[in-house]
Amino acid sequence: MHGLRGGLRFRPDYPESESIQSLERIFLADSEADTASAADAREHRITGIAQLGRGTMRVMLEGIVDANLAEPLKGKNVFADESDLPPPEENEFYFRDVIGCEVFLLDGRRIGIVEEIIATGANDVFVVREAGKEVLVPVIEDVVKEIDVAAKRVVIDAVPGLLD
């Protein structure tokens, strides 16, 4: 984050997501998402959000009205409460829901676990790892055939060259 006249410049992990537009509050913390605790995070009410450019937004927070008040927030990690997020639309998912899913080929062979997701702009890419091997799976209709978040399972069609 970067303070300017009380506004904070924010670069979300997934810039194409519109979820932040529906939020009324965010939490700021020094720690990363997997180690954040209630003691570490501080709630802030959102008073305005504007798109600044590709991948960057300006977030206005209640009570943060100048650069001096914004400065201590610079560099903080931004979190949302899961209950504040809108449910994903059909054929959409939250990254957090797919990370940890097992990935299988159409024939049932397991190729690994989704350990991270890269947002490339054109399409997302699942980083699937297993036994020291890494496969980059483009999240496109020709490759990803099924994502079952509840079962923590992804089924893909290994197009030529994908597993080489």
Describe this structure in words.
The chain has helices at 67-70, 95-98; strands at residues 2-4, 7-10, 25-29, 42-53, 56-61, 77-79, 102-105, 110-119, 124-130, 133-138, 144-148, 153-156. A 6-stranded antiparallel β-sheet has the order 1-2-5-4-3-6. A 6-stranded mixed β-sheet has the order 10-9-8-7-12-11, with no helix packed on it. The longest helix has 4 residues, at 67-70. Helix content is 5%, strand content 42%. It is mainly beta and 164 residues long. It is built from 2 helices and 12 strands. The chain folds into 2 domains: 2-84, Elongation Factor Tu (Ef-tu), domain 3 (Beta Barrel); 95-156, PRC-barrel domain (SH3 type barrels, Roll), CATH 2.30.30.240.
Layout of secondary structure:
Elements: E1 2-4, E2 7-10, E3 25-29, E4 42-53, E5 56-61, H1 67-70, E6 77-79, H2 95-98, E7 102-105, E8 110-119, E9 124-130, E10 133-138, E11 144-148, E12 153-156
Parallel strand pairs: 7-12
Antiparallel strand pairs: 1-2, 2-5, 3-4, 3-6, 4-5, 7-8, 8-9, 9-10, 11-12
